[in-house]
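Reopening this one. Same input as before:
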Amino acid sequence: MNLTIDRRCRNVRRIEDRIREIGDHAGRLAAHHLGGRLPQVEIVLTDGNGVARLIQDADLALAGTPSWRRRAVGRVFDHWHARHAFAATALTVRGALVAINASRNSNLRELDQTLIHELGHTIQLTEAGARDRHIAYLRQQYGLTPHSKSDQRDYERLIDVREQQAANLEALACQLPNH
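Same output, byte for byte:
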């Protein structure tokens, strides 16, 4: 696990220290609970706009280059959503990226829950077949490949199931040191 601090973040030393303290343990808990393996993870502390930028850049790197119109629509949606999110997860070429909105995670208990939740998503997205299916979904969302409404609905149902599984992981945060 690698931790990076975005230059836009200020006064995040406490959050950085906590992630370094619990990151590996949180990853092991999530992997054990989900029955998967933690991939190589890059964690970035940033602000809401940074979360949107990082996630979209990671998605585009995997999906390819969409038309400028699709890219603009995606950017508007991601920025609105990410400004209010505690964190977001994306696949990368080498593993996974977890972008944490430092301004939304100043409470360390919430940070513990956020971190284990997002590490759960990294495990889910790197399960057998999940990576290819997610990349196909991204390519469809950016208009690079055709898709059927039923395929989109099926994948979005899977996203809902994964979100519930990750939310259930948050209860494991009480097992982290000094929680």
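So the earlier flakiness isn't reproducible anymore. For the record, The mean pLDDT is 88.
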